[in-house]
Amino acid sequence: MSGPGPDAATATKVVGNPSWRRMEPPELSPMLTHALDLFYENGFHGTSVRDIANRVGVAIPSLYYHHGSKEGVLLALLEYSTSDMLARAHAADADGGDDPVQRMSNVIEAIVLRMTTRARLAALEGEVRYLSPENRLRYRVLRKGVEDVVREIVVDGNARGVFHTADSAESTRAVLAMCQAIPRWFHAEGRMSPEIVAAKYVDIALTAVGYVSTANPSTRPRTKRAR
Amino acid sequence: MSGPGPDAATATKVVGNPSWRRMEPPELSPMLTHALDLFYENGFHGTSVRDIANRVGVAIPSLYYHHGSKEGVLLALLEYSTSDMLARAHAADADGGDDPVQRMSNVIEAIVLRMTTRARLAALEGEVRYLSPENRLRYRVLRKGVEDVVREIVVDGNARGVFHTADSAESTRAVLAMCQAIPRWFHAEGRMSPEIVAAKYVDIALTAVGYVSTANPSTRPRTKRAR
């Protein structure tokens, strides 16, 4: 269920660009790469503009010239990260054709692959609350794009009777939250590959939106329960 | 489904102390209360021992005397927060009697009530990565207690055929992660009461562990799907 294995490849019409599964190193300027490391190590408030400039080996005005402020650096990183995620989510979604289950599987796989292989960028999420209200809004608009992709799939799946959620928007947010938490434990534990985590979370996410696969041995006919 | 309403009260044997629903202001020393505010406003690294001492109105050595270091202050807050959560989770669990669905409902309700009414303490979770490895371990042991409560319920529900998860431990972690994300949006949005959020997340969590309530109009007979 974690992607187009032999079965899925024959069962679904594959459209779109399958490159959403490839995770090359992020294309960031040296300034942003070093800032990302410092924010990860010491937090946004624990990192000064001087720290970043020293680490990159540039003068402080050069940093101000490029990003305006330390907050500008954080915003540039968050915008890069979220745009990359959004592009991958769209490609993964298109790759699932017209099938809500395959679309959901692909998009969750894309999100989890990014959470596990780009942990530093993914962990920046925790620094969003330090953005000014205007910049937070700017970031939220981008991030909402990923939420929109998933919610649209959940709504479609509900309409077709394959998913069953009482509140599609809240279930979508909950499913994204469980994926976003992955960077907090993935590297510390180090016992699962990104692919295995992706497969597990595809299964959990599908269950969370009320999908029951008849092929999945973990799901058996429901016991009727009197309350 | 968000707690023992009239139906649940007659259907399940209520044991334990129902006080887990009451959320009094946290009982923290003035030093910890002010440190919590500062960590929330400026992050752990953005807060100095001097900042905390100034805000409380004590000399710096007094702070070192009580907590050893700034990290000691963070650890004291995390330990208070996690112990409080664990006590509530145990009480909520006991209050659900022998019924995995009611136990799960109660524990998720207890967790969400805390996430929504004690947002500052709940948000501290993001600062855990700044703890030293030994202190992080000490904290994780406490936190694992809450995970153990939920996982034990999921395993029991699976054994009785009312829940259906492929990996109980991972589903437990995912369900807790969606609850832990609530403080990140709850106050910013301000459109739902803690009780409504709790009811929604009880429903989402039960669905996520593969429970299908026959009384829930959002869940219909599953469509058999050929893949």
From TrEMBL, chains A, B:
Keywords: DNA-binding. Residues 1-22 are annotated as: Disordered. Residues 25-85 form the HTH tetR-type domain. Gene3D superfamilies: Tetracycline Repressor, domain 2. InterPro entries: Homeodomain-like_sf, HTH-type_TetR-like_transc_reg, HTH_TetR, KstR2_TetR_C, Tet_transcr_reg_TetR-rel_C_sf. Residues 48-67 bind DNA. This is TetR/AcrR family transcriptional regulator. It comes from Rhodococcus gannanensis.
